[in-house]
Amino acid sequence: MNATQVDLSVKVGKLELDYPTFMGSGCYGSGEEFAPFVDLARIGAVVLKSVTRLPRLGNPTPRLVHTPAGMLNAIGLQNPGIEWYLEHDVKKFAERPCAVVGSVAGFSVDDYAYTCERLAARDEIAAIELNISCPNVAHEGETFACDPNLTANVVRAARATTDKTLIVKLSPNVTDIAGIARVAESAGADALAVINTVRGMAIDVETWKPRLGNVTGGLSGPAIRPIAVLAVYEVARAVKIPIVGQGGIETTSDALEFFLAGASAISIGTGNFTDPRIPVRIADELAAYLAARNVASLRQIIGKANVGFANPYQYEGDEG
Amino acid sequence: MLVGLHAPELVRVTRPGHFAMVIPPSGERAATALGIYEAHGERASLLFFEVGKRTRELGSLKIGDQLGLLGPLGNGFTLGQARNVAIVAGGVGIASVLLPAQAALAAGARVRLFYGARTKELLVERERFANEGCEVLVATDDGSDGHRGYVTDLLANAHDKPDLILACGPTPMLRAVARVAGEINVPAQLSLEETFACGVGGCWGCVVPLVRTSAQAPSFPPAERQGSDVVYARICKEGPVFWAHELRW
């Protein structure tokens, strides 16, 4: 078998994609910013930067700190608000040669439902990602993904506003992500994005002050990859809906870990800040990897690393 | 360290003040923003100091190696009809001011370079600017060459008032340039430095508060409860060059 015969297409809810690659929300603008450097026809979907009901100034600076094997960000959902966005930005998304997924954030169940309904009604938007896990907007944003009742309420409310594919983005900053995943599935999510950033902080030892204007931030990049792989693995064992796995993916080997853990697709965010050619390279190399193993379709390897969990009292492996 | 690039396509579209996001040859994060130093014919170059892992990696490139980069990026300097240009460079900020110096000289303007660094050895490429036709005035923190103290002292005390100031360097120096420019009532364009992630306007990480009336201000509606006169602009996209009097930093 040669690489051109391998089927990399995926189905996430009603969303059918030729490539299993999403570009992570907040990392890729609306795709237009990267279009001079990347053939967007060779990626699956761009997830847009989150939009809220009202305009947001965003967090004070600095908003970024590079850290070992990753970075902290605290952008604070700077965006023009849904009304301005619908009027000025959304029509441009029709030109993208890949799927365009809208991202909705909010501070109340009503906010989410309102913004989701307005955005999902537009033909330019193929699907909606519900960002219930932004760690950078005081206590309000991430609360939804950290509380099963709030998760249920917000997903149910958004679900009622649209028939389009609804992807719910989960937070790793919880004790039991599989439990939250089950709740989101029951409330009507079509797919889950696993994971958002991990809360973190850096301090300037010269000034004795936090290095981010927002004090705390979200950690992304290879530093969080093992956390994300485990989260996907746990969620995949808990739900039947597809998972978009994300967290520090930079190479084909990284991507394969997520597919084998149970992700149907992957999302690349911070990786694009090292090299925007990564998503296309991963698609090419995935095809070659599968062809070399006589696997005709990427779908055949999803979740193949599922061996359950070792009982810590019986486990006799040599891990740590 | 000066890395020359055979990059005719880059040269063709590079304007003074543009920068590039250089992809690390090792593939280990993250891309590095560097000013485009030279751009002529088929050759562009990048000028930097080897101060960290990433710049050391770039410094170890060998002749014939390939280097991936995104560029040219950003909005650069605007010379207008300036006849008497003062360029203020601090440290590695020198890397972003050769192209505007050349453009101003080519337009027949007088160009003075006010160049500051910690010590004499770090005043790199000063002969290059002199050979191009700039008058070069230097300042060092330790007094090992030129004025002992800040380069902005030289600007403040310059006899012949410039009609345009262009500056690139560390943020404290740029703030001082903005203050001096206000005092002597000369318009100043500052090329800002900040931590970048994407470098192409996709992540909104590298922002600076800008007056809403600026031509460079994103046309976002005002946010509730957060004041209506200021909006955060992306340094990598709307900048990196901004008018000093339009910044609210």
Folded structure, characterized:
Chain A has 320 residues and is an alpha/beta fold. Chain A has a single domain (3-301), classed as TIM Barrel, CATH 3.20.20.70. Chain A is 27% helix and 18% strand. Chain A has helices at residues 82-88, 109-120, 140-146, 148-159, 177-186, 225-238, 252-261, 278-292, and strands at residues 10-12, 15-17, 21-23, 45-47, 64-67, 70-73, 99-104, 127-131, 165-169, 191-194, 198-200, 203-204, 209-210, 217-220, 243-246, 265-268. In chain A, strand 1 (10-12) and strand 2 form a beta hairpin. In chain A, helix 2 runs parallel beside helix 4 and helix 4 packs parallel to helix 5 (177-186). Chain A starts with 9 loop residues before the first strand and ends in a 28-residue tail after the last helix. By secondary structure, chain B is α/β, with parallel strands linked by helices. Chain B folds into 3 domains: 2-73, Translation factors (Elongation Factor Tu (Ef-tu), domain 3, Beta Barrel), CATH 2.40.30; 84-191, Rossmann fold (3-Layer(aba) Sandwich); 207-246, no CATH class. Chain B is 20% helix and 29% strand. Chain B contains 6 helices and 14 strands. Chain B has helices spanning 8-13, 53-59, 98-106, 126-132, 151-156, 171-184, and strands at residues 2-6, 19-22, 32-40, 43-47, 69-73, 84-90, 110-117, 135-140, 147-148, 164-168, 188-191, 207-211, 230-234, 241-243. In chain B, the strands form 3 sheets. Chain B has a 7-stranded mixed beta sheet. In chain B, strands 1-4-3-2-5 form a 5-stranded antiparallel beta sheet. Chain B has a two-stranded antiparallel sheet with strand order 12-13. The two termini of chain B are 32 Å apart. The relative contact order of chain B is 0.14. The chains are: A alpha/beta (320), B alpha/beta (249). The A-B interface holds A 26-29, 33-34, 36-37, 49, 54-58, 61-66, 69-71, 73, 75, 78-81, 83-84, 88, 221-222, 250-251, 270-277 and B 23-24, 27-31, 68, 70, 194-209, 218-224, 226-227, 230-232, 237.
